[in-house]
Amino acid sequence: MWQDLERRIRNIASNRWNCNATTETIAGVKCDCVLKPQPDEWIIVEITEESSLEKVRTDIAKLVTVKQSLFMNNVFARCYFVMKNTPTDSMRAAGDAQKIFVRSAEEFQNEYFQYSNYVYTRKKKQFGSLINIETGEPESNIYIDVSYSNLKTGKDLSIDEIINLLKSGKKVILKGDFGLGKSRCVKQIFDILTQDVVRSPYTIAINLREHWGAKRALEILNRHFSELGLDAQNFIKTYEQPNTIYLLDGFDEIGTQSWSSDPRKMQHLREISVCALKDLVGQVQGGVLITGREYYFNSDAEMLSSLGLSSSQTILLECHQEFTDTQLLKFIAQNIPATDAEKALSSLPAWFPKRPIVIQLLLKYASDIFTIDYALEDICSFWHALLSKICEREARIYPTLNPEIIKNVLLYLADRTRSNSGNTGPISQSDLSDAFESAAGFRPNDESSIMLQRLPSLGRISADSPDRQFWDSFILNGLRAENIIQLSKSWNSSMLNIAWKCPLDLTGLHIISEYIKKDAKRIDLFISIARNASSSENKILASDIVSALCLLDTEYIDFQDLFITDAHFSYLSFEGKEINRLSISNSCIERINLTNSKFTDQVQIRDCIISTIYGISSIESVPSQIIDCDIDNYEALATTTLIKRANLSLSQKLLVDMLQKIFFQPGAGRKEAALLRGMGVSANKPLGERILRKLMDENFVTRHKGDEGYIYKAQRSQTGRVKKIMTDLTLSNDPLWKYISSLSK
Fold first, then answer.
1. Nearest 5 degrees, angle CA 251-CA 298-CA 480?
2. What gap in Å lies between CA 381 and CA 392, rounded to an integer?
3. Distance, CA of 130 to CA of 357 (rounded, Å)
4. Which has more confidence, 510 or 339?
5. 735 belongs to a structural domain
6. C-alpha 170: how far from its chain's center?
7. What CATH number is attached to the domain comprising 685?
8. How many structural domains is the chain composed of?
9. Do the domain assignments include residue 220?
10. Per the CB 3.0–4.6 Å rule, which of 46, 162, 443, 569 could disulfide with 589?
11. Does the pLDDT at position 564 exceed 50?
12. Where residue 651 falls among pLDDT bands split at 50, 70, 90?
């Protein structure tokens, strides 16, 4: 560390006086740093690690001897005594008496380049997209340590390991899509490296999106310092030297100046847009970290070529898609100190995306996100808030575009993927251009072009293809659900002429279901849409609506003689429901839940391919309304039917049924009424309530107040223990099982 400081001071002196620093012995005194800007004008710099007054006085006496000796030889010497720490008034006075400048290392540095001022000013500014989503101000949430995957070795690297690579002069590229923490990584590295502004390398953190149109490295640097209100003149003299680390955030945000549907032309435009970045990276000798969205370039080869780097000299890193449970617990605990982190985590529904940007959004979306008053149960409200915040965030980056245009572009593209057998894509360059024109009314140009290249949740379809695809299923299915919701508000018959190939997943179905739930009148409206769709080319629109309606928290659904054929259902749940006047034929049903369901005689499922039936143990138990269907799997683990048949006591049956519903059946939580339904517990309500209290006392479940009574959610940390209880049953030695078993004795 001392050698680093000594080198820093010698380097500063050399640049300050524009000459080489040498070590010389003058008048019997060994001088650390001697500079000769003029034959008769020398600069002598003494560098010391010690900070005692006695040491200062001794070294000042030596410098006086040097000055006098040089003066006798017609050389005027200006002498500096540079020490590690801030000198006391007595130390400065000792130097002043002999016309010797006593400075701390930081003071000496700042007389040339005010680095400490740069660090202070830079920390007050925004780092990339790291902003408070609500206010647009720089984000102040406490970050946690996460790791980043090395794409060559497959190993994870910590922040400290990345810093060591940068200190050794390595070039590092960190890729990751929207909201995965690239800018947070940059800020964390900057904060660590600038804890000691004297000994650590100069660290310059640049938001590349502020440098549209730059052609050379010096344009980036001059603009960067100018926007901070600082003078870059002295720094620029030495910007390429090894003692400087550059953190360059957002190569995808630096922009292209035009748009083309021709992939080859777009590649050329991307290369032009980063030419100043290429110039900077090519000149600097120190370490460089460059970040950008995963699929801005069509391949890693294009990315490296555009940035002037080779595969052998570059470390390629990638952000992980989600927090681990451990990381999420730590994040919650650090950012919401009053919250029980484990309880908060257990309260999150299964659909909840554990992505950093979503977690940050939630922290701003409600004053206490994990209280019962917050409707995490309502995925529809959550989705609309998330979509709004995403579009607002992108619009802040490109102020000429409003959030509604960005939203409609995403909706258009999500709808377009429905007709592709690949489900998530491909999305061509022409599709992107068409989407923008549909949303904005004119063809994309300037800022709009780069927005299209970096749309949230879109990624490259392959290493050598310019086409894109949706990589975030939560966002994709949310957008698809939103399109159906918009259709219910403003009917567009052209939707019926499109043969969708990809059904909604459970996320999208829950969003529509929650939307319908908010107004009972919507049930008839959506059944009407399904009826129109069932007789059109768009059969999957009909199946999506039926699947969403089946997720409503009701015991009876009348589908009003709805007939659906040649459709595709991702998940169809009749659990705990009586279904009437519905016919499904010649369709694909990936999963169907028949647990505690009831069909009237006016229900028929015929000639369908069913991958998995839940709640049915074998073909013998299949309801008579399911006719001539090919069924691949029966999933009967701990179903209500089997529990009833098992040689278990009532309390044991109740426990297993409750655990199955809370931990293993789809959904975010279970109402108390649903937990007590199906086992004849109404006559044993006190027993059922006693079991629920025990589950809460033993931290298996948490109870929350819902709109219609209490809701029970799984404590996910107990999932392994629950699985073992469900497997062992009467052979279980678990204390919970033993206690519950004793209740029937």
1. 95
2. 17
3. 9
4. 510
5. yes
6. 26
7. 1.10.10.10
8. 6
9. yes
10. 569
11. yes
12. confident
* pLDDT greater at residue 197 or residue 168: 168
User: Are 288 and 339 within one domain?
Assistant: no
Diameter over CA atoms, the chain: 117
**Confidence at 644, pLDDT banded by 50, 70, 90:** very low
Helix (H, G, I), strand (E, B), or coil: what is residue 741? helix
Tokens of 259: 């748009």
The larger pLDDT score, comparing residue 745 to residue 92, is at 92
CB atoms within 10 A of CB 228: 15
Whether 63 and 79 have beta carbons less than 8 Å apart is answered as yes
Q: Averaged over 161-165, what is the pLDDT?
A: 93
- Domain membership of residue 605 (yes or no) is yes
Domain with 43 in it? 2-112
Closest Cα to residue 659, out of 614, 704, 709, 724? 724
- Domain end residue (candidates: 636, 661, 696): 636
Backbone angles phi, psi at 511, to 5 degrees: -65, -45
Quick check: helix, strand or coil at residue 274?
coil
467 and 516 in a single domain? The answer is no
pLDDT in tens, 28-76: 999 889 999 998 999 999 888 777 888 889 889 999 999 999 999 999 9
Whether the link from the prior residue into 426 is cis, omega within 30° of 0, is: yes
Q: Check residue 699 and give left, alpha or beta (phi > 0: left; psi -120 to 50: alpha).
A: left
- Of the candidates 662, 736, 661, 657, the one whose C-alpha atom is nearest the C-alpha of residue 702 is 662
Residues 150 and 297 in one domain: yes
Percentages helix, strand, coil for the chain, rounded to the nearest 5? 45, 20, 35
pLDDT for res 531: 92
Q: Is 504 exposed, middle or buried (0-12, 13-18, 19+ CB in 10 A)?
A: buried
Q: Please, what's the b/e burial string for 564-574 (b: 16 or more CB within 10 A of its CB; e: otherwise)?
A: bbebbbbbbbb
- In this prediction, residue 484 carries a pLDDT of 92
Domain co-membership, 120 together with 108: no
